[in-house]
C-alpha cells in the first residue's frame, strides 16, 4: 500500500452539541486549519475535525513560511510510515489462517448452508419456510457483500490470477455487477478520494428526490432490481469481451437461483420463485444502504485540490460502527467495526482488519488524530433528523488552510 503522509496532531476543538468549536491553527503559520467543521453526531462520536499542529522541524528555526507546508508533509509521511511499519509487523507474524483462512472459511460455510436453505423452502409450515428465507438471505449477502468486497481488494488470496477468478465469481456471478466498473468505482475512486467532493464523496448513494422515510426504509427493497440495471448501463464503458463475460455471468447467477427455487424448493409458478428471489436478496438491503452512508456522509468533505494526505483524510472521513454478529458475518469487519482500518490498509482481509484494530486505534488516539466511532442507532437518528442537509443539499467543504 502506498505510504503518503503523517503528522503529529493536537486536538484543539471541543465538541458542543455535535459541533466543533475553537479555531485550530498550524504553528509557525498562524492560519486556521479547519473552520466550522461539524462532527458527525452526539457525544459517542469523537470530534472528527481536530486541529493539527506541527512545530518547527529540528535544526530549522528560521520560520520561513514557504517551508512550513513541506515540513508538515514530511511529518505526515512519517506518521503514515510509522503506522504502516507497526501494522506490517502484525501481518508478517500472522499465519495464513489469520490472513485469509478465517474469511475463506466464512464464505465456504455460507456455500454449505445453501442446500439447507433451499430445502427449508419446500416446507409448507411457516417456521421452516422463514428459516429458509433467512438462511438464503444471509448467505446471499455474505457472498455478494463480504465476498465481493474482499475480492475487489484482492484480499482473499495473494495470487493475482486467483484474485481475478474470485472477483469474477463474487462480483459478476453472485452480485450481478461488472468487475472492471466495481473495482474502478470502489477501489480507485472511493478509496483513492475518500470524502473528496465529486469523486469519493459517496454521492452515488444519494437520491435527493426521495424523502427521508422512503429513502431509509422503502427504497432499499429495490436494491436487487436496481443493481443489475445499473450494471447493464455501465457495460457501455468496458470492452466488449468484458461486457459479454459479465452478461453471461449475470444470466448464469440469476438462472441458477431461479432454477433451484423451482426444482429444489418446489415453487409452482415463476412469479412465486421471482418473488422469493426478491425477498431473499433484499433481506439485508436496509443495513447495506445504511452502512454505506453512515460511515462517510456527515463527516468532513474536501475539495480535490485542498484535501489532507492519507492518514488525515482517512481518520477524518471514515467512521466505525460497533460490532454486530449478523453484520460482521454478512458484510465483514472491514465494512462495520473496522472501516477506518480498512481505509488505511485496504488490501487486508476482514479478520486482519480486526486484528490490527487495537494498534490503529491506539496509534491514532496517541497522536491526537480523530478515530470516529458511533452506534448504528445514533447514526440512524442523525440521518433522519438532518436528511435534507446530509442527503439532499451539497455537503460543505472542510476548509484546510496551510496544508496544500
Automatic annotation (TrEMBL):
Which chain regions cross the lipid bilayer?
213-235, 242-264
| Annotated Polar residues bias | 11-20
Q: Which organism is it from?
A: Tachuris rubrigastra
A GO term from the CC aspect? membrane
Question: Which residue range or ranges hold the Fatty acid desaturase domain?
Answer: 129-373
Q: Which UniProt keywords apply?
A: Fatty acid biosynthesis, Fatty acid metabolism, Lipid biosynthesis, Lipid metabolism, Membrane, Transmembrane, Transmembrane helix
Query: What residue ranges carry the coiled-coil annotation?
Result: none
Q: Where is this region: Disordered?
A: 1-73
**What GO annotations for molecular function exist for this entry?**
oxidoreductase activity, acting on paired donors, with oxidation of a pair of donors resulting in the reduction of molecular oxygen to two molecules of water
Q: Which GO terms describe its biological process?
A: fatty acid biosynthetic process
Q: List the Pfam families.
A: FA_desaturase
What's the protein called, per UniProt? FADS6 desaturase
